[in-house]
Structure prediction request, 327 residues.
Amino acid sequence: MKNLHLAVVGALIMASPVFAEGIFSFGGKNYTEKDLSPAQQQQMYEIAIQNYEQTKSAVDSFILDLHLDEEAKKQNKSRVDLEKKLLEVKEPSEKAMKAWYESNKNRIPPTYQFDQIKGEIAKIISQEETKKKRDELIDKIKKAKKFSFAMSAPVAPFVDLNIEGFPTKGKDGAKVTVVEFADFQCPHCKQTSESLKKVIDKFKDKIKFVYLDFPINPSGISKAVAEGGHCAAEQGKYWEYHYKAFDGQSSLDKESPGKLAKELKLDEAKFKTCLDGTKAKALVEKGRLEGERIGVSGTPYLLINGRRYLGAHTYEALTKEIETSLK
Prediction:
C-alpha cells in the first residue's frame, strides 16, 4: 500500500505544470509546445493523456485498497474474501453469450463458431461485469468521501487542417466539425463508420463530417478502393460507394473499385478513365500527407472541432461528445 501511495504522489508531481515557461531551452531560447510541429504536439498530448489516465487508475486502486482495508477491519473479515464478495458476478447466461457473439461477429474469424468459443466469451463477459462493478464501487466510495482529483485532464492541441476537396456531409459553418482519417480495410474503421453514419443521421445539419483517406494496409487494396471513391464522387455517388466499400470490407480486392462502380450503375468508361488518371490518386495522397503532418499513425483517427478525440467510437459515446460540443 505504501509503495502504491508513493507512486500516486509521484505521478501527480510529474504531471504538474512544470513547463509553464517552456519545454526546453536551446541556443539561448526557450521553446514551448507551440514551437513544435503539429505531429510533435500530438505526440506530447498522447504522452500527457496516457500519464493522466494511468494516474487516475492508480488513484482508483489506492482508494479501493483503503476502503477494503477499513471494511475488512470493521467486519473482522479477510480482505480477500471481502473483495471477492463485493465484486462477485453471476455466470453469464446462454442468451447473454449469444448476444455478445452476434454483436462482435465482425471481429471473430469466421472459422470460430459460437459453441467452440462460448467458454472464452463467458470469461470476457465476466471480466467486463467485474470491471463495471468495480468502477461503480469506486464511484460510490468517492462520493461518500467527497473525493476531488488534483490533476486536470490534458487538452488536445488544436490543428488547422486543409480539408479542401475531400468528401463532406452536413452543412458548412456547422457548430461541430468531425474529421475522420480511415482505411477501408481497417476493421475498427468499419465499426466507426457504422457509428458515425448513425451520428450524422441524428444531428444532420448541426454537424459537418469530413472524410480523409489514410490507407495503411500494405496490400494496396485500400489505396485502390480509396481512389475509386473519388472517382465515384465525380458522378455524385461518393457516399453510396463509401458505405458499400465498408459493408463489403471482408471481400475487398484490387478489382473492387470496378465492381462497386458496376453495382452503383456508374458510367464505367468514365469511372475507368478517372481511375487511370491522376486526380483521384492525388487526393488520396493529399489525405495521407495531411494525416502524417498532424501525427496520424493509425486508423481510425478522429478530430472534433480540430482537436483529437480519444474516446470510444460507439454511437453512444460519439453522440455524448457531440452534444457536449454543441453546448
Q: What stands out?
A: Strands lie at 24-26, 29-31, 168-170, 176-182, 207-213, 301-304, 307-309.
